[in-house]
Amino acid sequence: MKELLLFIGIFVLAGCQSARIHIVAPSFDKQQKQQLAQHFADQNLKVNFAQGVLAPSEFNEASITMSPTFADFKLLGLVKDALRSAGYYKVDELRFAQQQQFYYEGHIGVYLLLPKEQRLPLYVESEDCTPYRTLMLTPEGRWQLDDFVSKPLAGTWRRQGDRVVLTSDSGVDTHLHYERTTRITYRGERPAHVLKALPGTQGAFKCTFVAINMN
Q1: Spatial separation of the C-alpha atoms in residues 212 and 215, rounded to whole Å
Q2: Domain-by-domain residue ranges, the chain?
Q3: Distance of alpha carbon 179 from the chain centroid
Q4: How far apart are CA 172 and CA 73, in angstroms?
Q5: Architecture of domain 18-116 in CATH?
Q6: Where are the alpha helices (DSSP H) in 43-149?
Q7: Percent of the chain residues topping a pLDDT of 90
């Protein structure tokens, strides 16, 4: 009986992951998360989607972060197989993540981000509004509009092609047109992100919001 229990224990341990897999995918909706989890399940891997974790802007589309001493190369291979089946063929391995993110031994992070040219800036500011206002767009899909006079508005945001859809916490949708363009500055012409209210937009979003890249 003891030998049988020992065998069962060894079998269970052999089937366990050596590390917990935390996925940071701020642009994924519920369906995309389910599909991605299935790709990992096909490799007999369990994952959890981390909430409230900021993804460094320097990261590329797909990155695996881990402890400097992490050495389960079989698990890394399975993670890459799962990502490859999900369409991520180029995956960066970041030990200590260039001091951007740190994972203890027994944990690895998988960061799946939009291509850099599609990422929105954290803040855009109004160009033609009174009073002046700022719009924050977090990588986790939350937004907040401040005019520094009245109570801030907030909700969730998502991309739909060349539009950004802002859904307020009360359930009201506002559609803004997004484009990459340029603006003239004291340093000459610089690239810029522009979010512009569509015709018929009312209230606080009847503005053009801009973020200029001065780097």
Answers
A1: 9
A2: 18-116, 120-212
A3: 20
A4: 47
A5: 2-Layer Sandwich (3.30)
A6: 73-85
A7: 42
Q: Measured between alpha carbons, how far is 168 from 120 in angstroms, rounded to an integer?
A: 18
Secondary element (H or E) of residue 10: helix 2-14
HSE value, Cβ hemisphere, 13 Å, CA-based, for 38? 7
Top-tier CATH class for 120-212: mainly beta
SS3 assignment, position 85:
helix
Same fold, 18-116 and 120-212: no
Query: Which of the residues in the chain have pLDDT under 70?
Result: 1-16, 97-102, 117-118
CB 106 within 8 A of CB 71: no
Q: How far apart, in whole angstroms, are the C-alpha atoms of residue 214 and residue 148?
A: 25
- Which amino acid makes up residue 51? Q
Tell me how far apart the alpha carbons of residues 136 and 117 are, in angstroms, rounded to a whole number: 18
Is residue 123 within 8 A of residue 136, CB to CB? The reply is yes
| ∠ CA 39-40-42, rounded to 5° | 70
Task: Encode burial over 55-64: b for 16+ CB neighbours within 10 A, e otherwise.
Answer: bbeebebbbb
Q: What is the largest CA-CA distance in the chain?
A: 81
Model confidence pLDDT, tens digit, residues 170-208: 999 999 999 888 888 888 888 888 999 988 887 889 999
In angstroms, what is the C-alpha Rg of the chain? 22
